[in-house]
């Protein structure tokens, strides 16, 4: 007997979860169809219901958003209009296809042909590409209020991250940053060091013990998710070393995050369709966000109850994670974050922190494997400093060469290879007049490889270049090297100015401790006949995969 809608689950029918199922049922009722239907009927009707819903959404947009329609038309018109007077020179015509198809080649070629401040037309949007240190400083630091996030093209917000630090602007951003800062201070972040090392040791024991060839980038992605969930919510890896615990809560988070990352990857490779349009991709993504919301809001409610029972103080609870730190943080008026604001910041930290750390570790270990002389120096430092003991938070200051490896990896392969801003008013940049609403793309990728700044070996992996700056910092550590736009005014792997990455110390500590733990136990070599990993620039600068031969020391 064929399964009916009452006899088979959405998954068994090959359907998304409840939102899509409800949409189909409504569609069938409107058409007078029997709601008891086969899976084949449901899949067919899903297509028609999506088309119908999409048409209605488009109609609502036309009826209710004249401003949005006007914006779309004006963008189309700009395809055929000359640039505004004084707009920086650049390629003729629209360069969107060239940028999407080969981003890094396009950036390098554009700089070579037109200089360090270039005017572009991208999908009908007037954009200025910046690869000039002084102009980058103006955008990110000196005139940070003039160049905000609001209105930035190609960096759309998402229902996943909400109005978190990554996309918020103005007073909302200032307040959220103020409330979040205590949780990311050095002393607070150092309390997570032991968990970072334990998770790394579990990963190595479970996945690397037998050696062989592995895609270490995939392993590090799972590891950084474990570390992030532990730091955010206190969700620990299982004692067996098999990764995260298999609770329903953890499984829901991991599955939903994986689906969200797949969605963003597909979205970055083509024309982004607004999340409000009920495509198959968007419905699945909406389902993932709903599941994450359910878990995160439940965790927030539970913690608020725990804190209330403890008189509002985190010190008396067993929880020592970022959620608790954010819950007890209050502004001058004694007000903390709302549940919605907390949810947005937690989602932002989960998405942004986990992925970029996995990317950094993937590139860093690839560079070590393909530069054995650098790896040998790093191992010698680890052995001399640690003498076989587990790395601890205090050791990050005693491993300057490992620190230099991380800084140099970020220079060559910064995960955030483009940083977007928007002119909030008419202004000028590097002597070029800009109209309000112009998007600015600052390129760390180009700045970090500029021979005029870094010397003739600007594309070489040479951690030793950081030694002079480390000595000049006089014990200030990596945070001194990352202040402003770096020691030479052209280094911004974590951004710069008031919107620099709030998790900088967390990310640097994590990378140093993980790499030190790996080098204590394993030697890294390129897989047989393998070439250096290819870049996969989407929203972030990922490696395709990092296949390395893992050898026990």
Could you describe the 3D structure shown?
With 553 residues, the chain is an alpha+beta fold. Among the domains are: 18-64; 185-416 and 521-552, Cytochrome p450 (Orthogonal Bundle), CATH 1.10.630. Helix content is 52%, strand content 9%. The chain has helices at residues 18-30, 39-64, 66-78, 96-101, 103-114, 133-142, 170-180, 186-190, 193-208, 216-233, 248-268, 280-309, 322-328, 339-370, 372-386, 400-412, 444-448, 451-454, 467-472, 477-481, 504-521; strands at 117-122, 125-130, 147-148, 212-215, 419-423, 427-429, 432-434, 439-442, 522-526, 535-537, 541-543, 547-552. The strands form four sheets. It has a five-stranded mixed sheet. A three-stranded antiparallel sheet has the order 4-12-9. A hairpin with a 3-residue loop joins β10 and β11 (541-543). α1 (18-30) packs across α2, α9 crosses α21 and α14 (339-370) packs across α16 (400-412). The longest helix has 32 residues, at 339-370. It is globular and about 65 Å long.
Set down the secondary structure blueprint.
Elements: H1 18-30, H2 39-64, H3 66-78, H4 96-101, H5 103-114, E1 117-122, E2 125-130, H6 133-142, E3 147-148, H7 170-180, H8 186-190, H9 193-208, E4 212-215, H10 216-233, H11 248-268, H12 280-309, H13 322-328, H14 339-370, H15 372-386, H16 400-412, E5 419-423, E6 427-429, E7 432-434, E8 439-442, H17 444-448, H18 451-454, H19 467-472, H20 477-481, H21 504-521, E9 522-526, E10 535-537, E11 541-543, E12 547-552
Parallel strand pairs: 2-8
Antiparallel strand pairs: 1-2, 3-5, 4-12, 5-8, 6-7, 9-12, 10-11
Helix pairs in contact: 1-2, 9-10, 9-21, 10-14, 11-12, 12-13, 12-14, 14-16, 14-21
Cofactor: heme
Binding site for heme: 501
Family: Belongs to the cytochrome P450 family.
């Amino acid at each position: 007997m064929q399964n009916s809608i009452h006899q088979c689950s959405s998954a068994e029918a090959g359907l998304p979860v409840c939102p899509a199922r409800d949409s189909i049922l409504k569609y069938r009722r409107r058409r007078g169809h029997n709601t008891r239907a086969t899976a084949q009927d449901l899949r067919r009707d899903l297509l028609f219901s999506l088309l119908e819903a999409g048409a209605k959404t488009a109609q609502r947009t036309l009826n209710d958003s004249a401003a949005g329609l006007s914006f779309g038309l004006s963008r189309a018109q700009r395809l055929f209009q000359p640039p505004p007077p004084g707009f920086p020179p650049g390629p003729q015509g629209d360069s969107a296809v060239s940028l999407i198809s080969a981003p890094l080649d396009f950036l390098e070629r554009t700089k070579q042909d037109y200089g360090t401040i270039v005017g572009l037309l991208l999908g009908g949007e007037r954009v200025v590409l910046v690869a000039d240190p002084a102009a980058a400083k103006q955008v990110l630091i000196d005139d940070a209020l003039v160049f905000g996030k609001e209105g930035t093209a190609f960096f759309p917000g998402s229902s996943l991250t909400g109005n978190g630090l990554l996309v918020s602007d103005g007073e909302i951003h200032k307040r959220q940053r103020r409330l979040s800062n205590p949780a990311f201070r050095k002393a607070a972040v150092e309390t997570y060091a032991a968990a970072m090392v334990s998770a790394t040791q579990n990963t190595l024991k479970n996945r690397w013990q037998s050696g062989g060839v592995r895609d270490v980038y995939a392993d590090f992605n799972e590891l950084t998710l474990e570390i992030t969930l532990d730091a955010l919510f206190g969700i620990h890896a299982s004692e067996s070393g098999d990764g995260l615990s298999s609770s329903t809560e953890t499984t829901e988070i991991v599955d939903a995050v994986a689906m969200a990352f797949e969605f963003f990857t597909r979205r970055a490779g083509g024309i982004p369709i607004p999340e409000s349009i009920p495509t198959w991709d968007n419905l699945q993504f909406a389902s993932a966000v709903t599941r994450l919301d359910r878990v995160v809001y439940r965790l927030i409610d539970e913690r608020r109850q725990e804190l209330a029972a403890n008189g509002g103080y985190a010190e008396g609870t067993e929880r020592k994670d970022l959620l608790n730190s954010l819950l007890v943080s209050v502004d001058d008026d004694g007000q903390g974050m709302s549940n919605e604001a907390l949810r947005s910041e937690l989602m932002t930290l989960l998405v942004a922190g986990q992925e970029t750390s996995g990317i950094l570790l993937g590139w860093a270990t690839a560079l070590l494997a393909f530069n054995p002389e650098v790896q040998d120096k790093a191992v010698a430092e680890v052995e001399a400093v640690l003498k076989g003991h587990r790395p601890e938070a205090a050791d990050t200051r005693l491993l300057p060469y490992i620190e230099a490896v991380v800084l140099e990896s970020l220079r060559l392969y910064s995960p955030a290879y483009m940083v977007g801003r928007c002119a909030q008013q008419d202004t000028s940049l590097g002597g070029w007049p800009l109209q309000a609403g112009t998007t600015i793309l600052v390129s760390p990728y180009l700045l970090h490889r500029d021979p005029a700044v870094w010397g003739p070996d600007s594309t070489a992996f040479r951690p030793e270049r950081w030694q002079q700056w480390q000595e000049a910092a006089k014990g200030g550590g990596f945070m001194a090297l990352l202040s402003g736009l770096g020691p030479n005014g052209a280094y911004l792997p974590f951004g710069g100015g008031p919107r620099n990455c709030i998790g900088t110390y967390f990310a640097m500590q994590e990378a140093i401790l993980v790499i030190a733990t790996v080098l204590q136990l394993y030697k890294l070599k390129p897989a047989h006949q393998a070439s250096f990993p290819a870049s996969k620039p989407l929203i972030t600068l990922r490696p395709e995969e990092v296949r390395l031969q893992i050898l026990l020391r």
